Amino acid sequence: MILYAVTIFLSAFLLFQVQPLIAKVILPWFGGTAAVWTICMLFFQLLLLAGYVYSHAYVRLRVPARRHIHIALLVLAAATLPLAASAAWKPLGGEDPTWRILGLLATSVGLPYFMLSTTGPLVQAWYARSHEGAAPYRLFALSNLGSMLALLTYPLAVEPLLTLRHQTAVWSAGFVLFALACATLAWRSKGAEAQRLAHDDAGKPGPGLQTLWAALACCASLLLLAFTSYMTLNIAAIPFLWVVPLALYLLSFVLCFEASGWYRRWLFLPLLAAGLAGVCVTLTRSNPSIWSLIPLYSATLFVACMVCHGELARSKPHPQHLTGFYLMLALGGAGGGVLVGLVAPNVFKDLYELPIGMLALCVLVMAALLRDRSSVLHGRWRIPVGLVLLALTVALGVALARTYAEDSADTRVTSRNFYGVLSVRDSGEGPEAMRMLSHGTIVHGKQFLEADRRDWPTTYYGPTSGVGLALIDAHEHGPVRVGVVGLGTGTIAAYGRTGDVFRFYDINSDVVKLARTEFSFLADSPAKVDVALGDARLSLERESPQNFDVLALDAFSSDAIPVHLLTVEAFKTYLRHLKPTGVLAVHISNRYLDLVPVVQQAARQLSLEVRQVENDDDDDAGVYRSDWMLLSASPAVFEGRLLKEVAERIDTAPGVKLWTDDYSDLYRILK
Question: What predicted TM-score, i.e. pTM, was given to this entire model?
Answer without folding.
Answer: 0.80
